[in-house]
DNA sequence: CGGATGATCAACT
DNA sequence: GTTGATCATCCGC
């Protein structure tokens, strides 16, 4: 698998979020293909960076291509990848688990349904053992590894999930028809043709 | 099936 | 003191 070029994230955050669908994310050999993302930036009321730089969101204003990891609801973690525009990042919401399934199962539960192992930002972080220790860490070097697509997926866009303030902008992206999504996309989604 | 609920904490006001 | 870019479980259809 070919590693993602360093300038991959140095673009408009919506484009990066779209183009991350189909790429492979691994940590210490555990991971799979990204099938769902969301984009955030400073102009977005739903974004942690909306009110400017703070101790928590500092990574969103740090090096491009590094991780922004935060704790949510006191129980879970969420993984973002920082993009070119300061205060912008892509939330990784779901992957198709392909590598290190045994370790994923050990962390997520032996009886966990296959499709629920990494379907959601919190579940994904538990499966890949991502926590605050990885906040600010580069995605382009161990323990992380990002790889290019092996095929061009059909991509859909829709409104984001779980936000209270943000408008219903189409900033959630997913692999059309994938069984590994955290939730299906609305019926009247916008089909995105590309390439 | 779908909706409601409690868990639990770092950051923010 | 309040608030989540969530999840697993419980309850009623």
From TrEMBL:
Keywords: DNA damage, DNA repair, Hydrolase
Catalytic activity, EC: 3.2.2.-
Record carries keyword Transcription regulation: no
SUPFAM superfamilies assigned to the protein according to its UniProt record, in alphabetical order: FMT C-terminal domain-like
Biological-process GO terms, alphabetical: base-excision repair
Pfam families on file: Pur_DNA_glyco
Keyword DNA repair: yes
A molecular function (GO) term: DNA binding
HAMAP family, alphabetized: 3MGH
Protein family: Belongs to the DNA glycosylase MPG family.
Entries under NCBIfam families matching the protein: 3mg, PRK00802.1-3
Name this polypeptide is given: Putative 3-methyladenine DNA glycosylase
Source organism per UniProt: Sphingomonas paucimobilis NBRC 13935
